[in-house]
Design goal:
single chain; Ribosomal Protein S5, domain 2; five-stranded mixed β-sheet; 6 helices; ExoRNase_PH_dom1; ExoRNase_PH_dom2_sf
Length: 236
């Protein structure tokens, strides 16, 4: 039995509320169970130096956790400096979102997706990627409505979910009690067409088999199907 009482292949409740901030070109509050992340997409008419005069755009991301997003208070990273974990996660978010962006169609402009964890209960990077895509979609919609771009630069959905081996069984969408005790922990980032963007898997307490890995991927595909459906509802 999972601590939450969920079935092995059951996701936590998912909700995505859009347009939650006034100034950002795209924004949403995504809730995956008790993990809540505010995602905003900000448009800038500039690109990094290595893309100047190329006609190509750029999508990047930043990630952070509020001091009391977890059980005990953390010092703000503005005070103590960014951790290696934060840098790794925000690079992952940026890579994942760029995987389904036609940067030529976007034109020479940058969209920065900020993901701020309000409350953490496992799977914050996955929620950030899933919600980040929604914020990005909304920002692109504004560009297209204004006539600044004529071809949709987003080629597919991007969503992410965690899967792992808990108490010897493959489970979908780990919350913190499961994540902290999982023998195998994995993050799966997929497109709406179920093409893999990135897989992060590690044995925390024991090694795993190819059969177990395939089973976790099957669970991830099921979870991503549900996340993409929630994204479609949010931006409809």
């Amino acid at each position: 039995m999972r601590p939450s009482g969920r079935n092995l292949d059951t996701m936590r409740p998912i909700s995505i509320e859009t347009d939650v901030t006034r100034h950002a070109e795209g924004s949403c509050l995504i809730k995956c169970g008790d993990t809540h992340v505010l995602c905003t997409a900000s448009l800038e008419e500039r690109v990094p130096p290595f893309l100047r005069n190329t006609g190509q755009g750029w999508v990047t991301a930043e990630y952070g956790m509020l001091p009391r997003a977890t059980h005990t208070r953390m010092n703000r990273e503005a005070k103590r400096g960014q951790s290696g974990r934060t840098q790794e996660i925000q690079r992952l978010i940026g890579r994942s979102l760029r995987a389904c962006v036609d940067r030529n169609a976007l034109g020479e402009r940058q969209i920065t997706v900020d993901c701020d964890v309000i409350q953490a209960d496992g799977g914050t990077r996955c929620a950030s990627i899933t919600g980040g895509w929604v914020a990005l979609r909304l920002a692109v919609n504004k560009l297209m409505k204004a006539g600044d771009i004529v071809t949709d630069p987003l080629t597919d959905h991007v969503a992410a979910v965690s899967c792992g081996v808990y108490a010897g069984q493959n489970v979908l969408d780990l919350d913190y009690p499961e994540d902290s005790e999982a023998g195998v922990d994995g993050n799966f980032i997929l497109t709406g067409a179920k093409r893999l963007i990135e897989v992060q898997m590690s044995a925390e307490g024991a090694t795993f088999t190819r059969e177990q890995m395939n089973g976790l991927l099957d669970l991830a595909e099921k979870g991503v199907d549900e996340l993409v459906a929630a994204q479609k509802n949010a931006v409809a």
